[in-house]
Amino acid sequence: MPELPEVENVARKLRPRLVGRTILETHILWPGVVDRPSVIQFREMLRRADIVDVRRRGKFLSFHLDFGHIWFTHLRMTGKYFVQAAAVDAGDDPHARARFLLDDGTWLVFSDTRKFGRFYLVHNAAEVVGNLGPEPLGSAFTAEWLAQQLAGRRGEIKRLLLNQEFLAGLGNIYVSEALWQAGVHPERIAGTLTVAEITRLHTAIRLVLDAGIANGGTSLGDRQYVYPDGGLGRHQERLVVYDRAGDLCPRCGYAIERIVQGQRSTYYCPRCQSLPTNPEGLT
DNA sequence: AAAGCACCCTGTACGC
DNA sequence: TGCGTACAGGGTGCTT
Predict the structure, then answer these.
(1) Would the pTM count as exceeding 0.85?
(2) Distance (Å, rounded) from C-alpha A152 to C-alpha A89?
(3) Which of A15, A57, A124, A235 has the fewest CB atoms nearer than 10 Å to its CB?
(4) Catalytic site residue A31?
């Protein structure tokens, strides 16, 4: 399931293969993949377009085109890009949703098992990413900023960190890992974290994302994230709590537990990430 | 501001 | 073995 580190790796892998290329043909194999504009306009606008840059914002991948438009992709759960020498059809990959012939003869293929991934072709980037929170690896994300933003928040810290309008790029895996790293219980009320906890959390978020990027992202189960060249990430071997209920915490030896928050799984160590005895969660 | 839920979709894991 | 069902996930949109 692509989160910031996976999308960052996709962007890095695609960049040298796409920048400088011209799109010659656009084949939409499943029309639902195009969110905007219409499929017809999308195909028309991409015709002969040059790709001048490949970037990432939060979990969005962006291809910047020479005529000023930006083609965003959100991979959601199972979206994957491949660059290959030959066109694929349903027989090669039943999950191929779109393919693009480039001027060097290679094909950019978008494959997405669960059909959640979307394309957005816009002139104004803010239309797609305007409401996102800051980049957790950017200079705007400081411990001071985090402390300021957490003040007065009544919701649970884990749910807040998953909110892309609060902070862009964290998903279920890296949130659980960061909270473990910081020793903060996922059900803590965000506004009650101490300065020390906020500082640890800020550091943990950056460490976990940096490690995820350096390890090529996380490839897990059927939602396995795969590189454009077919390679796998290696960060799943480094996960401490995510999907590891029953395993022992490497820090204290206690068994990792799974709970559900906002209809989503959360994994944590009940000893390293204890809740205050005060039922209000105040410290 | 926050939470709940339906929805989008399909592969997998489970119970019988 | 095979069937049916629950579940997982990110994000949006609607309701409370």
Answers:
(1) yes
(2) 53
(3) A124
(4) no
